């Protein structure tokens, strides 16, 4: 997992509240077992018409947001089922940071485990960012260590992250990476239990 220390990127504003995981990655695309390849199906039912043609009016299909790596959205993002494919799809598409006033608990936890930083700002701050981001080409710098979001216009917002999760992201450690730090101790324990 790649560490997140300071991330700078353009913002894509998704003006939706209560976005559930089936909207993020519809169930028909959950057949893959690897973590890659899901980005092409992100928000599929919103990005494409039933005949497969592109919906030009949907924000992910607008050229002014091409290459955005920060998703700005509304409250209760990631509700619904606990599928880990949702953060996989977001990350595979290119989003490294999500900013919202609130998240569903399991989705929020899954973001940290998969290398996405979910930032919580107030509804007022998020509304302010929407006004700026909807003009296109708005850039933010997120400093995880300092817990600051700085806009290309100089605006600064503060956020809080649980220190344990923050430290894991700063080091680029998921659950497996964290366990691997103790391989020598695990090996010593296994040797001891074999001989007893």
Query: Spatial order of the strands in the main sheet?
Result: 4-3-2-1-5-6-7
Please count the beta strands (DSSP E, at least 2 residues each). 7
Shape annotation: globular
Domains, number: 1
Highest CATH level, the class: Alpha Beta
Task: Indicate the CATH architecture.
Answer: Alpha-Beta Barrel
Mean pLDDT: 93
CATH structural fold name: Aconitase, domain 4
Oligomer state of the chains in this structure: single chain
User: Which stretches of 5+ consecutive residues score pLDDT under 50?
Assistant: none
**Strand percentage:** 15-25%
Q: Roughly how many Å is the radius of gyration?
A: 18 Å
- In CATH terms, the superfamily is Aconitase, domain 4
Strand/helix succession = EHHEHEHEHEEEHHH
Largest sheet: 7 strands, mixed
Overall SS class: alpha/beta
First-last Cα distance: 37 Å
Estimated helix fraction: 25-40%
Explain what the structure shows.
The radius of gyration is 18 Å and the shape is globular. It has a single domain, classed as Aconitase, domain 4 (Alpha-Beta Barrel), CATH 3.20.19. Helices cover 33% and strands 16% of the residues. With 196 residues, the chain is an alpha/beta fold. It contains 8 helices and 7 strands; from the N terminus they run βααβαβαβαβββααα. It has helices spanning 21-24, 44-47, 85-93, 105-113, 123-133, 163-171, 175-180, 183-195, and strands at residues 6-13, 70-72, 97-100, 117-120, 139-143, 148-151, 156-158. Strands 4-3-2-1-5-6-7 form a 7-stranded mixed β-sheet. The mean pLDDT is 93.
